[in-house]
Design a protein that fits this description.
Elements lengths: L1 E6 L4 E11 H11 L10 E13 L2 H17 L4 E5 L4 H13 L6 E5 L2 H7 L1 H17 L1
Parallel strand pairs: 2-3, 3-4, 4-5
Antiparallel strand pairs: 1-2
Helix pairs in contact: 1-2, 2-3, 4-5
Length: about 140
């Protein structure tokens, strides 16, 4: 499953992947949001892969995904892009392949193996996480 969260008036796009994810789902999700006007304001694009159980993504899917992202990267060329992956061989290999292919995008692309690294990278994400924790504590 793929869920998008536009945070701080569109300055941060957080995409969470959970359960099983296919390459076609990723491509379809990217195409559906590609015309969103919030890309004009986005500063950070963060993908959280830490809750994924199964990934069915081929190298061809990654090539197609990068092709879909090229026009988006031209809309927000100064945005920073990162993924949080589990520190295992599958996650690291897939993201390394993505980072290699994404070299011709206008974005700076990073890969993190912990939420703490992502929080240090993006203060908007850190603030979002802190608000969510506060809400969870208040409702408990």
């Amino acid at each position: 499953m793929i869920n998008d969260y536009w945070i701080e008036d569109g300055k941060l796009l957080l995409t969470r992947y959970t359960g099983s994810v296919t390459g076609q789902e990723m491509i379809t999700s990217t195409l559906e949001k590609s015309g969103d006007e919030r890309f004009d304001r986005v500063k950070y694009i963060l993908q959280d892969w830490t809750q994924v159980e199964d990934v069915y993504v081929s190298r061809q899917n990654v090539r197609e995904l990068v092709a879909c992202l090229r026009p988006i990267s031209r809309i927000c060329p100064k945005a920073k892009n990162a993924s949080i992956v589990n520190p295992d061989d599958t996650g690291s290999a897939l993201m390394a392949w993505y980072k290699y292919l994404a070299d011709d995008l206008t974005w700076e692309v990073d890969i993190f193996t912990s939420h703490a690294e992502a929080e240090a990278w993006c203060d908007l994400y850190l603030q979002y996480v802190q608000r969510q924790q506060h809400l969870n504590e208040s409702s408990a």
